[in-house]
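Protein modeling request. Please complete all fields; requests missing the sequence field cannot be processed.
Requester role: graduate student
Desired output: 3D structure, token encoding
Chains: 1
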Amino acid sequence: MGEVERPLVGQVVTVFRNRLRAEHEGAYRDELAVVAELARSMPGFLETKTFVADDGERATIVTFADPQSHRGWRDHPRHREAQRRGISDYYSEYSIAVGETSYASAFVHDPQGSGGTAP
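Delivered output (119 residues):
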């Protein structure tokens, strides 16, 4: 298990919630692999992680270092193509919330007994 990325003020966080249409899940996985690799290659990319709830809803959290980096990702032609395909082929529903971090804090437990570290 990797370390949790420490958040910083000014980072841009996107929360993308969605549900997939069952008949297109395989094609979606292929598309996601391409798009996720593209995101990782973008300047300012920090982290992406997807969680799937028991009821099938998916939530992906994507973090970029700053608004300029996020705009580069948002407007990338291949990402725009994936968004269009998501609407036409993959999603039964989705919502997106994007915000610039105004407060950030983190905690890491120290198993050596010092109680942990916080910024």
